[in-house]
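Exercise 7. Predict the structure of Phenylacetyl-CoA ligase from Coprinopsis marcescibilis.
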Amino acid sequence: MTIFRNPIPLPDFPDNLTIPQFMFEHQDNRPVRHRNAPYFIEDATGRRVSHEEAQHRTYSLANAFSIKWNIQKDDVVCIFSPNHIDYAPVVWAIHTVGGVITQVSPPANPNYTLSELEYQLATTKAKVVVTHPDCLETVTAAAKAVGLSTSAIVLLDARGPKGFITTDELVLFGTTEPENYSPVVLKPGEARTALAFQCFSSGTTGKPKAVAITHHALIANIIQMATHFKITDPHAKNKRKLPGDVAIAVLPFFHIYGLFIFMHFLMYSAMSIVVVPKFNFKEFLKSIVKYQVTHLYMVPPQIVLMCKHPEAKKYDLSRIKFCMSGAAPLSGDLLKQIVTVIPNAVVGQGYGLTETFSVSSIDPEIKIAKVGSAGKLIPGIDAKIVKPDGTLGKEGEQGELLVAGDCMALCYLNNPEANASTFVDGWVRTGDECIIKDNEIYEILKVKGFQVAPAELEGHILLLPDIADACVVGLPDDYSGEVPLAFVVPSAKAAQRIGNDPAKKEELKKIVIKHVADAKSHYKWLAGGVEIIEAIPRNNSGKLLRRELRERAKAMAASKPTRAKL
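Solution. The predicted structure, encoded as tokens:
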């Protein structure tokens, strides 16, 4: 049996701790935080939240939630908010009393429609909603629809309307009132089944599914990542994650990427997080300089902005020493460009799903990632490739990627049909077509026996000023097996120029096809053509949902007559 795994040994995982116990109290071989290095920095004001204050707010909030709403084991609290410096203390407070948080990809996305939030609250039976004033209108309407009192709505920001309690008021209340709760104490092994999050997966069909994430899954992934990056190795040289380093959280805490990386892994690594509620590129650049940011964690559209936008050249980005891209692999063109924009940084890529909470593969700290790679398997992750005929693929053979490890989700809650197709004998089916080489994951197509990395073509297409986003998939083909087909989204200016004019649409398609043909080998040409669409399907973490467009390509192939040989 061909099972791929990283051979680096892991330390033992504690399986009797809650997440806040691990974050605040577990010190085994952990980096020591500098006294002047805060947990969080509020981007707009510069307010700094120290380790001591984060801990104080967590336990005061735990007491307040216990007294006011009797939150206890397995009760659900929903967070519906952009990033905020009290986001993590609320999460950890609920975990302290044994409750479960629902948010993330896409549960409490502030862009949710009313009906979607109603579904979220009804499905999880949430007892309290914690939100931001900007989201209050939607929250109050959804709460009313599911029978939840407005007294069970908490505001993260005091600038909201009167009549709603705020987290600041809850902290004061929880501090002054006698302690009403006992922190949850887990028995050995219990953290493996104790729920911490109900994270809703942005599946490609039907309503979102509630993914059950345990305390142990998150803690295991932290230790796996810390081992991978040698954070706890006192003898490792040239480490690029050091106590006192600063990362900027422009990715939302309400999805897996932001929840794990910013709120937990980098906290564990003794770094400070600049909390940004909403991404604005020019303000983002200003904050990098203002707060001396050393680490960037982004998704490909943001990388494209860094490479394309003239504003990036106006700022000193020399302090940045690490840049990670997730959600989709970067092309060689983008990799070459981004290292000129941030010349002192290593640039890596990662791969993960809600169901694999969170990171399955990520690049080690090398200068530049390999083109098409989604990173190297981290310690403690097993992977296999299942070919269409059901047999296991060897190194370099294409098929569906399946992964296993301590950080996997338990299941989809109350969804046996979905569980049967995704969680199979201890493995998670990712639905992504990949190959594995040297323990690195690659998403590829195969054209006439040649391997083609979609990311390479996507990145090259994105160099065109008329293209805002792109996704390349394989179009089934009788002669070549499959051929590259590009789905593209025109830029705002291009879309306005083209309008509904069929001739102008065809002209843009020809420009894209020629752009690729002029620079790439013959088998990489867009023989499947170009389709212009309004948006590339992505989940709320920015991960490209290639499967949706792959299915669309299959339907297109089935509806067309057999192609002549090229």
